[in-house]
Amino acid sequence: MSHRKVLRIALLAAAFLMMALIFYFSAQNDVQSGKTSGEVTEFVLNTVVPEYKKMAGAKRQSYRKTAELIIRKLAHFSEYAVLSALLTGYFYLRRRDDRLLTALPMGWGLASLYACTDEFHQMFVSGRGPSPTDVGIDSGGALLGAALVIAVIALRHRRLI
């Protein structure tokens, strides 16, 4: 089996694992999801913002609420950037003519489509619901992930798209 084929299979397997991870987080009800993001937020704030530990009452809650929103949206963006990067790499290696412009819309499009199905899935999870804003954030992350892969490939081959 060629190195290219092994890499293609590995990228596709990693993409499916990423999709499973996204599905797992989306299947959490509102309480579970809030607990997970709250723990991540507390960890990040305690690590990155030294004065956070000294904040009291309303100021601490306000700071935490804002940070949690930012962290949750960055998580959406990042998950889909990774998914799209994996899919774009897969489609780039799948093509015999190695056309970069074919891989980008395929990776970005499939990741964005998965974002839509993810929001649909959340309609059936207790305390959760679909968010068009999240689809936009997810699609933006997917576009960045695909574009970065294409840029790296183009630079590696020292050619323009």
Tell me the layout of helices and strands.
Layout: H1 3-26, H2 30-48, H3 57-94, H4 100-122, H5 132-156
Helix pairs in contact: 1-3, 1-4, 2-3, 3-4, 3-5, 4-5
What does this molecule look like?
- The protein has helices at residues 3-26, 30-48, 57-94, 100-122, 132-156.
- With 161 residues, the protein is mostly helical.
- The chain has one domain.
- The protein is elongated and about 60 Å long.
Question: Short description, anyone?
Answer:
With 161 residues, the chain is mostly helical.
Key terms:
161 residues, 0% strand, mainly alpha
Shape: elongated
Strand content: under 5%
- Poorly predicted residue ranges: none
Q: Count of DSSP E strands? A: 0
Question: How many domain regions?
Answer: 1
Structural class: mainly alpha
Compute the average pLDDT. 91
Largest sheet composition:
none
The number of helical segments is 5
The run of helices and strands is HHHHH
Distance between the termini: 29 Å
Radius of gyration: 19 Å
